[in-house]
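Z., the sequence and structure:
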Amino acid sequence: MTAVGTAVEAGAPLGDELELVAVSDLSKAHEGDKVTVRLLHLGKPAANAIVAIDHQPLGETDSAGEVRVKVRGAAIETISATLRQQVRTPEADQLVLEASLSFEVAR
């Protein structure tokens, strides 16, 4: 995590276990534009994750962890990603990790 008061470059990873970062310049994204986001798991691209807006799946990340989605919101947009990993434990069959990215849509 970053220290309070420290500026972070847009699209720069923070170091969280799973994070969704912008590849496109989101400050210029208007409703109807397509933007590219990248999903990172432990700092590395995460393939085969489902990416959605408003709980509607829009695509799956490629081998570079990237996917292009169409901006649908007129004010604030939130893109989410779900990564499922198989685990072999008595408690669970899968580990489900989720991340989201919210940004203000340009007017």
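Residues 85 and 95 are 5 Å apart (CA to CA). The longest strand covers residues 76-86.

Let me know what you think.
H.
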